[in-house]
Write a structure and sequence with these properties.
This protein has a single domain, classed as Porin. It is about 10% helix and about 45% strand. The chain has two helices and 16 strands. The strands form three sheets. The chain has a twelve-stranded antiparallel beta barrel with strand order 3-4-5-6-7-8-9-12-13-14-15-16. The protein is mainly beta.
Length: about 300
């Protein structure tokens, strides 16, 4: 079994990010309470992030009622082969097409199809709490969850239910100032079926656990009205018997208009579907297994 200590990013980095978020949120709230603010001045904070996506993660944002969104997500191959496949651009790629709609306020639902394993995913997102101006709540809280169906041939599965996997995530975010927003997102991934092996006693053993816990730290800093720098870390928490996943370190640019969002970035994740990213990522950032990805989102207000 691989030693997990070789796969994780030092906890001081992740913990420091969380402490900065908490301190800044409390400090912002204290500053607002120091002034004289009427209840009527409390309004929701807008545009904590400009898109529902931040690279391979969902943001805390839920579009307004009546919004229809189409997503194109693309991940090239890893850059480690150099010019042989043009640093991954000519390597086998992964693609997802998705559609989401907001039927009522604070609720977003949709589906997508990913090239890897021809996975259908059906997702839902709900804004539980909103960060408020004028001395109100200093953070926003959103739930995101999905169910994915592996579309490969039936020979890969003992039962049809073995195709199913699930993802649950709580997204906690704060807009600390006009240019800076951060979020932390604990998550649970679950696969109905995981690979096994027969040990020396002819007993079937699981290579990995069905359930996997992880935590993500994401941030955005605006460098202009329509452009921002984005960065983040996805840290696995569960220790499996074998094949422990590697963390994801990612950074890039976010470019937005009123109806479009475009992100180009480098990171370690290639699967796009969040539960497969968190559980099965074997791209080790320490050995240069990065890849280029981009997200394109188009929104219509119906």
């Amino acid at each position: 079994m691989k030693n997990l200590i070789h796969h994780i990013i030092p906890w001081k980095t992740s913990l420091g990010f969380l402490l900065i978020l908490c301190f800044a949120s409390v400090n912002l709230s204290a500053q607002e309470e120091a002034g004289t603010v009427t209840t009527s001045a409390k309004k929701p904070v807008r545009n904590t992030f400009e898109s529902v996506w931040i690279m391979d993660n969902q943001t805390v944002m839920v579009p307004v009622k009546g919004t229809l969104e189409m997503d194109i997500q693309h991940r090239f191959g890893t850059v480690n082969n150099g010019f042989d496949d043009l640093w991954g651009i000519y390597a086998p790629s992964n693609i997802r097409l998705g559609f989401n709609y907001a039927p009522i306020s604070k609720l977003y639902a949709g589906f997508g199809l990913t090239k890897e394993h021809m996975q259908w995913d059906f997702n839902i997102k709900y804004a539980i709490l909103e960060q408020m101006k004028g001395g109100g709540l200093p953070f926003s809280l959103t739930y995101f969850g999905n169910m994915a169906v592996d579309g490969r041939d039936s020979k890969f599965f003992g039962r049809n239910t073995d195709r199913l996997s699930y993802f649950h995530q709580l997204i906690i975010a704060s807009k600390l100032m006009d240019k800076l927003s951060v979020q932390v997102s604990p998550s649970l991934s679950y696969f109905n079926s995981v690979e096994g092996y027969i040990d020396e006693n002819d007993v079937v053993q699981k290579k990995m656990d069905n359930a996997h816990f992880a935590i993500s730290f994401m941030g955005r800093y605006k460098i202009s009205e329509k452009m921002a720098i984005i960065a983040g870390v996805d840290q696995p928490l569960t220790v499996h018997p074998t094949n422990n996943p590697y963390p994801n370190v990612c950074f890039g640019l976010d470019i937005t208009t009123s109806g479009h969002a475009f992100q180009v970035f480098a990171g370690n994740y290639s699967s796009i579907t969040p539960q497969r990213n968190h559980v099965f990522n074997q791209n080790d950032y320490k050995n240069g297994y990065f890849l280029i990805g981009f997200n394109i989102s188009r929104l219509w207000n119906l």
